[in-house]
Design goal:
This protein has about 200 residues and is of the alpha/beta class. Helices cover about 35% and strands about 25% of the residues. A hairpin with a 5-residue loop joins strand 9 and strand 10. The termini are close together.
Length: about 200
């Protein structure tokens, strides 16, 4: 059954909720040695139709001024932030993506690495056009394959058109096929589910 038909089937079978639900895709990986660095994945994938939700961004920067679109943390603030566990937990909970100016990356790693790294949230270095990078990030998801052979990410919301969600899913699966050592052969299975709902199996085309 085609992905679009699966989306429609899932919507028909799902219980109506009083809150917006997101579409999650779970990709289970097989026969990939994740002890090898070249097999790990940690990239931002721009979804053509976005995620259907607001994205929160934190930037470690000494050169960028205040912005309504993102949280700015200056270099001198990083060490004190690391000492306040309540504040760092709140920041992690409220941030989808972390970015940093290259010169601040060592400082972030030294003081915040123990909080961010285990969650796959270490900041990406900001290179080139910052505004473009930040704009792309608003339509992105982070694809993180490290210790466990599984990818779990959002691909849209139930407020989006079915065809837009389908396009996002196809983009994700195409990305995975290109990134995995043996492509499609390394994908054990793929499931689609709502935030609160039963998963439905998808076929990788």
């Amino acid at each position: 059954m085609a992905i679009l038909e699966k989306i429609k089937e899932m919507k028909e079978k799902s219980k109506k909720r009083n809150f917006p639900q997101r579409y999650d895709v779970v990709v289970n990986i097989k026969d990939v040695d994740l002890k090898k660095p070249e097999n790990k994945i940690d990239e931002l994938l721009v979804l053509p139709k976005g995620t259907g939700k607001n994205v929160s961004i934190t930037l470690f920067s000494d050169s960028m001024g205040k912005s309504e679109d993102l949280t700015i943390i200056k270099g001198p603030e990083i060490e004190s932030l690391a000492k306040n566990k309540k504040s760092i937990k709140k920041l992690i909970k409220e941030t989808d993506f972390f970015f940093s100016e290259p010169k601040l990356m060592p400082i972030v790693g030294k003081f915040l690495g123990k909080f961010l790294a285990p969650r796959g949230l270490m900041p990406k270095p900001v290179m080139g056009d910052i505004k473009k990078l930040l704009n792309d990030s608003k339509n992105s998801v982070r694809i993180h394959l490290d210790k466990q052979p599984i990818i779990h990410t959002v691909v849209g919301s139930d407020k989006m058109d079915d065809k837009d969600v389908e396009e996002n899913i196809k983009t994700l699966l195409s990305f995975m096929v290109k990134k995995l050592p043996k492509g499609k052969s390394n994908i054990k299975n793929v499931y689609l589910k709502f935030t609160m709902g039963q998963p439905i199996k998808l076929e990788v085309e």
